[in-house]
Amino acid sequence: MESISLFQILDIVIDISHFALVLFILFGWLYPSFRYAHLIVATITGISWLLYTQVNGIGNCILTDLHYQILGKLGKTNLPDTYAQYTFTRLTGLRIQNDVAMIITRSLWLLSFITSAVLCFRQSRYNKTIGVRK
After folding, report:
1. Which of the 8 DSSP states describes residue 124?
2. 1 in a structural domain
3. Which among 43, 38, 44 is positioned nearest to 119, based on CA atoms?
4. H-type helices in the chain, by residue range?
5. Which of 27, 61, 90, 109 is the most buried (most CB within 10 A)?
6. pLDDT per residue over 10-64, tens digit each?
7. How much is the mean pLDDT over the chain?
8. Per the confidence metrics, is the pTM higher than 0.85?
9. Residue 79 and residue 88 in contact, taking contact as beta carbons nearer than 8 Å
10. What's the structural domain count of the chain?
């Protein structure tokens, strides 16, 4: 029986965490009690993409690079450029091009961010109108 290495555990932990983060960014705005947290997380994600792109030139997330380093230690090579490509291929067996993955990822992030910002603004205006204090 083969033992599980630290890198295999880290692969699973980072994969689950990254996927959960993606789901939260896509759908966290749906729940009013999560909207402000969602807006903060989505903002930090967008800023990190911009800043990290300046460093590595790809536009990847820090989690993607960390995950790919761990996958490299596990002997996995020829990984796609983005986490979206990696996840899509693992779920469907199909490959998508980098440009398509980036357009889909950035568009869905922007849509989610704008929706969250609008809903947070409306919620704060509503709370002021009815005199709710936090």
Report:
1. H
2. no
3. 38
4. 6-27, 35-56, 62-73, 83-92, 98-130
5. 61
6. 999 999 999 999 999 999 999 999 999 999 999 999 998 888 776 666 667 888 8
7. 88
8. no
9. no
10. 1
How far apart (Å, rounded) are the C-alpha atoms in residues 107 and 113? 10
The kind and range of the H/E element at 5 are none
What pLDDT, on a 0 to 100 scale, did the predictor assign at position 11? 95
Residue in the structure block whose two tokens are 């295999």: 8
Amino acid (1-letter code) at residue 99: D
Query: Which structural domain, as residue segments, surrounds residue 39?
Result: 6-130
Amino acid at 121: F
Joined tokens for residue 90: 């693992």
Tell me the percentage of the chain whose pLDDT exceeds 70: 86
For residue 59 the two structure tokens come to: 């536009």
Task: Let me know: does 104 contact 123? Beta carbons within 8 Å.
Answer: no
Q: Is residue 74 part of a domain?
A: yes
- Look-up of token digits 């986490």: 83
Tokens 């603004």 belong to residue: 121
- Asked if residues 37 and 24 have their Cβ atoms less than 8 Å apart, the reply is no
Q: How far apart are CA 24 and CA 32, in angstroms?
A: 13
pLDDT band at 109 (very low <50, low <70, confident <90, very high): very high
